[in-house]
Amino acid sequence: MAQSTRKGGGKIPPKHLFLTGKPGVGKTTLIERVIEHYQGPVRGFYTREIREEGRRVGFTLNVIGGERKIFAHITFRTRFRVGRYCVRVDILDDYGVKELEAGIEEGSLIVVDEIGKMELFSTALRETLLQALDSDCRVVATLTKQGSAYREKITGREDVEVIEVTEKNRVSLIDLALARLGNR
In the chain, what are the domains? Predict the structure, then answer.
């Protein structure tokens, strides 16, 4: 069974689903399966590693059904840095945020993979995600396990359920995720 946490004593059924877990456990694969099987409009983005000669050199932001842009790379020079990667916040704002805004406008399922250190450099992304949570939309997202005030702001909401993805439960979680998101 999935390990799930909810705040607030369960007064409101969870509307939004946030997946957390160790790197490489299958969170993004689960998100991709939700996108594939969800019966309704889906908007948002997911991230992917860029590898050259077997080594990770950056990350792309992939708009669902749309464009793919490099938003973090070892060759970029910006003031926003995580480890050896510099982050282009303008890419997050111009593509990721606009995709979320369009999804809110349309009433789509909103997908964000992932909410981590790099993505949190974007103030607009943080604010737009909170707008999505307050809208009529449902949100499914992956969330870093590392603590932050923003993470606590999301996970502390009564309408958010957080499930830890593990090697043992990752295959069975697709049905649970789709059910929680109101898939018919």
Answer: 3-180 (3.40.50.300)
Where does the chain show beta strands of DSSP type E? 3-6, 16-20, 42-52, 55-63, 68-73, 81-82, 85-87, 109-115, 139-143, 160-164
Kindly state the helix (H) or strand (E) to which residue 133 belongs, with its residue range. Answer: helix 123-134
Q: What are phi and psi of 85, to 5 degrees?
A: -100, 130
Average pLDDT (24-35) is: 91
The C-alpha atoms of residue 116 and residue 101 are separated, in whole angstroms, by 19
How many Cβ atoms sit within 10 Å of the Cβ of residue 117?
Answer: 17
> Taking 50 as the threshold, does the pLDDT of residue 130 lie above it?
yes
Residue pair 118/59 in contact (Cβ under 8 Å)? The answer is: yes
